[in-house]
Design goal:
Blueprint lengths: L27 H9 L5 H22 L16 H6 L6 H7 L3 H7 L6 H22 L5 H46 L5 H29 L3 E7 L8 H6 L5 H7 L2 E7 L5 H10 L28 H7 L3 E5 L1 E3 L2 E2 L29 E7 L34 H30 L6 E6 L15 H4 E7 L8 E3 L3 E2 H11 L14 E3 L5 E3 L6 E5 L9 E5 L3 E6 L11 H6 L1 H11 L5 H4 L9 E5 L17 H18 L14 H10 L6
Parallel strand pairs: 1-6, 1-7, 2-9, 2-10, 3-6
Antiparallel strand pairs: 2-8, 4-5, 7-8, 11-12, 13-14, 14-15, 15-16
Helix pairs in contact: 1-2, 1-7, 2-6, 4-7, 6-7, 7-8, 11-15
């Protein structure tokens, strides 16, 4: 798992539906080919796919024969005709691919001549194609065979649903025509009033059939369910030493091989509540008044117009939205939202996608909290299959090489290993429920590592997050994309994928677009990303950063406030912080480690990320880098003005939760700042 790791903090994104491959744009051959191409042995898969083409053409020629309309509306209800058609002898999965049920089959056939014969021919042709394709795929892994047959069945399920709708619609039009003719004949004295009533009753009875047929198409097309998994406090980068030697069976590795892994994805904030507020709206938290951590919990503050949660747009489009708590056997979602505003309505419809209506597309958020510090970290090494040996890890140079630091880092890595097992169970559930091939899975973190120089800070350790997108048949597998991506871009992109136009006000940008052959490809949308840190708990600060592919610029608007100003959460939960303070007092920290213990922060920081990935050599005073410094400073100043950065203005006391307000008034003599 080279080069990426994720900060598991929460899971806050979409799980919605997308139109299935439509025969006008994606042929069955293409659907099979795209599905088979997902497997490693592409050569064999392609050969098998080519071998299927001939049988598929034969199936098509037999699947949709001409059908004649008849006025005999009752004689096809005879259940014996089901057996006469031979449909009952076909495998269940093929029969289900043709019609939802025998009852619906009879409903469709009320006024259509030879419908069961038609279904029989389709079923026979599919059965032949299935049997012979198994021979063609004999040299391919059994999983590939199953996948190819599933694609065939699903494709013909859509064909049959559309054909059935056409037949039902034709029948209903025929009924209406008969009714008009009956009324005309009644006026001419040829027909009786009873004849007119019978024809009108037939029209009334046919209306539900049309609705059922339309619903069948809607369900057949609702193939893609978006499912976002976001862990809490999970890092994007672990040491190569750890990755290579600790354990090598990663479910996340497998997930990445099945989709796209983004190596330059970043949050807009280094702590959960502002980053969640940004992602759920597609807006910078600084533009909507949600930038202070755990703010607006008691003042009734709501989102300004016209801003909305992305779940509102999914709901309006017919999706079921869920903040999942029952993730999988042995895996519990936290159900956390943590938004820095008050909602006037509901943010989600339920707590599990299984609560939706049959066939309804869904958008689901799942928060995995095991990588967030807490009491569940106690004895964590006993809960994982391969406990991390503290002596085998490689610490960043800004942390002291001390048993306490090594043990703390090892515990964190154990939490990541456990989270990885959870991901495997969640993906297994999708597979068991038959949703894996129809679901877009997005794995993301909501902030960086929960370490001293990570979470709450704008160094890469605090804002660099994992981003993996798996979309079977729609994205080329095994991709690695280094495009700069902001977390608010995910909001715009998932709406776009679902066929929902992102609102014009949204600051997030779409980073996946459809290309030839129905494949979606990454597009470059940013030359830089911007992130912001404001008050965290009782700790007042204001910091902004601009990051390009090569450089990171940090502006400390309150440089007189040290990195180690009082924060009870970190002092109580981060043992390495206390260790560093103790070693600093004893003069035992290296110059690099002592940087974080300084009595004040630099006004500006500039790092060359290629030469200095740990961000420890500040180039803000380097004569050779003044042009870069000026350019990035200008970018930030322009962004502050264009986006209406509300961090420019002091936070009102009423916006701060009572606990933090009390601590600030007791201890922060500079308030109001």
């Amino acid at each position: 798992m080279k080069g990426y790791f994720i900060l598991a903090v929460i899971l806050c994104m979409p799980a919605a539906a997308q139109i299935a491959p439509e025969k006008e744009s994606v042929t069955l051959e293409e659907a099979v080919r795209l599905a088979l191409d997902r497997f490693p042995d592409v050569g064999k898969a392609k050969a098998a796919s080519d071998a299927l083409k001939g049988k598929i053409r034969e199936v098509r020629s037999q699947a949709l024969p001409s059908v004649n309309i008849t006025s005999d509306f009752t004689r096809w209800r005879d259940p014996s005709l089901l057996n006469a058609s031979g449909l009952d002898k076909f495998p269940e999965e093929l029969r289900q691919a043709l019609v939802p049920s025998a009852v619906n089959l009879f409903d469709y056939s009320i006024s259509v001549s030879q419908p069961l014969y038609t279904a029989g021919k389709v079923g026979t042709a599919l059965r032949i194609a299935s049997i012979e394709s198994e021979g063609a795929l004999a040299d391919v892994d059994r999983a590939q065979q199953d996948l190819a047959l599933e694609v065939v069945n699903a494709y013909f399920g859509l064909l049959w649903a559309e054909r059935s709708k056409d037949l039902v619609t034709q029948t209903q039009e025929q009924r209406k025509l008969h009714a008009e003719m009956a009324r005309a004949r009644f006026k001419d004295g040829v027909a009786t009033e009873v004849d007119v009533m019978r024809s009108e009753v037939a029209v009334a009875n046919g209306a539900p059939e049309v609705v059922r047929a339309e619903n069948a198409i809607r369900q057949a097309r609702a193939l893609l369910n978006y499912y976002l998994v976001r862990p809490i406090d999970f890092p994007t980068r672990l040491s190569d030493d750890f990755q290579e030697k600790v354990w090598d069976q990663w479910d996340l590795d497998e997930l990445a091989q099945q989709g796209i892994r983004y190596t330059n994805a970043f949050m807009t904030a280094p702590v959960c509540s502002p980053s969640r507020s940004a992602m759920i709206t597609g807006m910078y938290q600084t533009s909507i008044g949600a930038h202070h951590h755990r703010s607006h919990r008691e003042d009734g503050y709501t989102l300004p117009e016209p801003f909305r949660l992305i779940t509102d747009y999914f709901r309006q489009a017919g999706y079921f939205t869920a903040n999942v708590t029952t993730a999988a056997p042995g895996v519990q979602g936290s159900g956390k939202t943590d938004f820095n505003f008050t909602l006037e309505g509901k943010s989600f419809d339920g707590t599990d996608w299984n609560q939706r209506k049959p066939g309804q597309p869904f958008f689901a958020q799942l928060s995995i909290g095991v990588t967030h510090r807490g009491g569940h970290w106690k004895n964590l090494s006993e809960k994982v299959k391969n406990p991390v040996d503290p002596d085998k890890i490689k610490l960043p140079p800004y942390y002291p090489d001390h048993p306490v630091a090594r043990q703390d880092w090892a515990t964190y890595l154990n939490s990541i290993q456990l989270m990885d097992e959870y991901i495997g169970k969640i993906l297994q559930r999708l597979g068991d429920e038959g949703l894996a091939e129809n679901t877009v899975v997005i794995f993301i973190g909501d902030n960086g590592q929960c370490h001293v120089r990570g979470k709450q800070w704008l160094y890469d350790g605090g804002i660099h997050i994992p981003l993996i997108i798996r979309w079977p048949g729609k994205v080329t597998t095994g991709q690695v994309c280094d495009h700069l991506t902001s977390a608010i871009d995910i909001s715009a992109t998932v709406l776009r994928i679902a066929g929902i136009k992102p609102p014009a006000y949204m600051q997030g940008r779409v980073f996946l677009e459809p290309a030839k052959g129905g494949i979606w490809k990454p597009i470059k949308i940013r030359d830089y990303i911007i992130a912001a840190r404001d008050r965290c708990d009782e700790t007042i600060d204001r910091i902004r950063c601009v990051r390009t592919q090569r450089y990171k610029y940090i502006r400390n608007f309150m440089p007189d406030r040290p990195y180690t100003q009082k924060n009870r959460y970190k002092e109580q939960s981060y043992p390495v912080l206390g260790l560093m303070k103790e070693l600093h007092a004893q003069g035992k920290l290296t110059p690099i480690q002592a940087l974080f213990m300084a009595s004040r922060k630099p006004d500006e920081e500039l790092y060359d990320l290629q030469a200095d990935p740990y961000e420890i050599n500040n180039l803000a005073g380097s004569p050779e880098h003044q042009a870069t410094l000026r350019d990035m400073r200008a970018i930030l100043e322009k962004w502050i003005q264009q986006t209406g950065d509300m961090g420019q203005f002091p936070e009102k006391l009423s916006e701060i939760p009572a606990r933090d307000r009390k601590r600030i008034l007791e201890e922060d003599k500079s308030w109001p700042y």
